[in-house]
Amino acid sequence: LALIEFIDVNKHYGNFHVLRDINLKIEEGEVVVIIGPSGSGKSTLLRCINRLEAISSGELIVNGTLLHTKKVDINQFRRDIGMVFQQFNLYPHKKVIDNIVLAPTRVLGLSKEEATKTAMRYLKRVGIADKADSYPAQLSGGQQQRVAIARSLTMNPKIMLFDEPTSALDPEMIGEVLDVMRSLTHEGMTMVIVTHEMGFAREVADRVVFMDEGQILEVAPSSKFFAKP
Ligand code: ADP
Ligand code: ADP
């Protein structure tokens, strides 16, 4: 059973047809990288998956939930889906550790102690346990993005969505974020990634989706997609 399935999905922003007849199935454990020119609809497609955007027609089924029914409990639905953005979206006035424990205590109802334990485990995972008591502004961009990833992982998601996670970073910080993402792919996390990092896409993608002007023009295994003609 596919974890994510787009069936004839279209989306309009007013008169602008941003997604055109999207058909795409993503299986559990798959790593799918979406590439294509700026403005082709990559980010919109990604944001439809956790219902940050509503589709206009067709069907979108994510983690067993048919997203167009009005009955969907969005907060419940989003628990299983982590998202990492270009901007790190950390609370500047909260320490790193407090940024992370917020959601598991409020949303999952974990005790502060449990949440802190889990958070520390993931901070260790992303290599910045020593920054737990720092404030975001005291961290580099790469470190802040790793906090954002740890924060998502603390919710124990089934799917991780990445929207150009390295685009706002100085070049020397990109590698450390890609390393963390690479380690997730090795653990069987289902991941959908929008990125311009072609070397990384080639390396980690099970399949590459190429979009242009709101359409999927090609879907192919990485080895095939990047094969020299
Ligand atoms: P990509 O991620 O491939 O750069 P996006 O999905 O961000 O593309 O955007 C696709 C197109 O939709 C762009 O032309 C963009 O200007 C337009 N767009 C994005 N969000 C909105 C919005 N909220 N309202 C109107 N147009 C939008
Ligand atoms: P919002 O409340 O965020 O403005 P709505 O839930 O009102 O969005 O959605 C606007 C329209 O798009 C509705 O007709 C809705 O049924 C449809 N729609 C939204 N999401 C989906 C989806 N995932 N699949 C199919 N139709 C959808």
TrEMBL record:
Domain ABC transporter: 4-229
Gene3D superfamilies: P-loop containing nucleotide triphosphate hydrolases
Pfam families for the chain: ABC_tran
Hydrolase as UniProt keyword: yes
PANTHER family listed in its UniProt record: AMINO ACID IMPORT ATP-BINDING PROTEIN (PTHR43166), PHOSPHONATES IMPORT ATP-BINDING PROTEIN PHNC (PTHR43166:SF4)
Family (UniProt): Belongs to the ABC transporter superfamily.
Name of the protein: Glutamine transport system ATP-binding protein
Native organism: Paenibacillus sediminis
Lineage of the organism: Bacteria, Bacillati, Bacillota, Bacilli, Bacillales
